[in-house]
Amino acid sequence: MLATGHQDLIAAFTATGRNHPYLALTLNSLCNLDCVFCKPSCMPDYGHKERPLTAANYAAIAAEAGAWNVKKAHCSGGEPTLRADILDVITALADGLGTGASIGMTSHGNLRRGLSVEQFHQAGLTYLNVSLHSLEPTRSAVIMGGGDPRKTRATIDEALARGLKVKINCVLQRTYLEDALGVAELARHLPVAVRLIELQNIGPAQAMFDTEFIPEAEVRTRLDDWFADAGEVTREELGVRSPGRYLQPTGWAGSIGFISNSSCATCSDANRIKITPSGIARPCILHNRDIPLKTHLADGTLSDAFEHLFRAMLERNGNEAWQGFHYVDYDLRWDRMERPEGAPVLPLLPMVTTGTGSPSCARRPSDGEEQ
């Protein structure tokens, strides 16, 4: 039972009309593939110097989140299915958030031996985001540094057969634009939401950004025939809170949306409680204060941490340093940012722009991270 002050804080957040916060959990940094725009194993801190949170930790966090009316948790990595305890983590989140919770995961879909979609479904998974950038095995292997898109397709088919909602994440690259459009066309016959994601000028992608970046506006011109009579699918219908509009071409089973983090990303509706693998909560990656949850887990004071998280999001629009929008979304897979605990990163960070767009875009605002 939450204290009266905490209930008032939830009511104040609800009164803003914004989406209720949800848990965005980065479970690990490890991945057995090596996408050209990601290349996790190239990072000097690949793997974690500190011990990651355990399934019991996630159970405690989810139970506290559930008391704050949080009803969604999304797991990503790295490749979260590489965790030996991944099924225990999913179960812990589902049990902690309770009946009716939405539990999701992002994966490349090449499940390791011994894992199946059925197991994830039984553990409590309700939706699956699958990374797929080409349907052609050789070209897919070049983009993703391995893996097999046919296995990914089998994972998608099994997930749909078991009643899971499925979203497909496809990063746009100029060299592989036709591959991305081929992935998008899966929505013609499958009830999936394909999200075409702009390349971001961060991390390993910086080396290829100038030649490979292609903006949403340019891609849309290639899809005029698809979108001519398309109807818009609400984010509520899709069960997503990510940025962009989702359009369903006439006669298609699924929809297509754009995640345009580079040409247009805004943050005023951001509602993710971002938690790194080692348990650092970040209500805002750029400006708000870090909260080491392990201390609160040990002291039994998670309620205090959630009070700070809700208050930080509630006060975000009044934070002058926020400026209402940004053009990059920092990577949460590693705890690589040197940030003092309990203090703002900087009083003001300059806006990072790509020269490809402006903040006045015709989309609902969000903080631009995949979900």
General description of the model:
With 371 residues, this protein is of the alpha/beta class. It has a twelve-stranded mixed beta sheet. Strand 3, helix 4 and strand 4 (127-131) form a beta-alpha-beta unit. Helix 1 packs parallel to helix 13 (302-314) and helix 12 packs antiparallel against helix 13 (302-314). The protein has helices spanning 4-15, 55-67, 86-97, 117-123, 137-144, 149-161, 177-184, 209-212, 216-222, 224-227, 235-238, 293-299, 302-314, and strands spanning 22-26, 72-76, 102-107, 127-131, 165-171, 193-197, 231-233, 246-248, 255-259, 272-275, 280-282, 291-292.
Keywords for this entry:
globular, 30% helix, TIM Barrel, alpha/beta, 371 residues, 12 strands, 14% strand
Instruction: Report how far the terminal alpha carbons are from each other.
Output: 29 Å
Give the oligomeric state of the chains in this entry, treating copies of one chain as homo and distinct chains as hetero. Answer: single chain
Per CATH, which architecture? Alpha-Beta Barrel
Please tell me the total number of domains. 1
Overall form: globular
**Quick check: average pLDDT?**
81
* Cα-atom radius of gyration: 20 Å
DSSP helical segment count = 13
CATH topology: TIM Barrel
What is the CATH level 1 assignment?
Alpha Beta
Short description:
This protein is of the alpha/beta class and 371 residues long.
How would you summarize the topology of this molecule?
Elements: H1 4-15, E1 22-26, H2 55-67, E2 72-76, H3 86-97, E3 102-107, H4 117-123, E4 127-131, H5 137-144, H6 149-161, E5 165-171, H7 177-184, E6 193-197, H8 209-212, H9 216-222, H10 224-227, E7 231-233, H11 235-238, E8 246-248, E9 255-259, E10 272-275, E11 280-282, E12 291-292, H12 293-299, H13 302-314
